[in-house]
Amino acid sequence: MVAMYLRLILLLAVILQVSHASDINCKKKGKDVEAKEGEAASLPCSFSDPTKYNKLEVTWQREVGENAVVIHAENPMGKSEESQDRLFSGRTSIPSSWNQTGDTTLTIRQAQEEDSGNYTCIIRGGGRPAYCAFLLLKVNSGSFQLYGGHHSVWIPFLLLVLMQVPT
Questions:
Q1: How many domains does the structure of the chain reveal?
Q2: pLDDT, tens only, 48-103
Q3: How many angstroms separate the CA atoms of 51 and 56, rounded?
Q4: Can you give the residue range of the structural domain that contains 52?
Q5: Distances (CA, A) of 22 to 57, 114, 162
Q6: Within a domain: 130
Q7: What is the distance between the alpha carbons of residues 32 and 141, in angstroms, rounded to a whole number?
Q8: What is the rounded distance in angstroms from the CA atom of residue 26 to the CA atom of residue 128?
Q9: Rounded to whole angstroms, how far apart are CA atoms 37 and 2?
């Protein structure tokens, strides 16, 4: 009889957890971001009503092949560096008031071409995780590329070369 009551209590606890799972309301899903090598890259991510959630945690991940590596992880007590990918150590931050404002924009200082890739912003608030941003970061070296970039860069160069062709 006691075992039956314990199962019933456990079932009620599971139902209560599922019904109160924090469905975080993401504000922005994000779009592609471009940055110059050596400068800071800002990857936007935010969610609504951060003060209503318990056990808040934000995690930024980057796809590496079929795996995801942690770029930045933080809860209201501070940044968690033990799970952070070593290539990003000391180069990432989010606003210090993120747990009051909901702004979890990731800043990557001194962006490198190797930082280019797909990033995901995940917010947990005591329930199911919310995937609030899926972004592609493109870090450009700033060097001239004839076949890449915007046409306004290479068309004048091409016209200059064509104007010097002897007739």
A1: 1
A2: 988 888 789 999 999 999 999 999 999 888 888 778 888 899 999 999 999 999 99
A3: 9
A4: 24-143
A5: 12, 35, 62
A6: yes
A7: 17
A8: 13
A9: 65
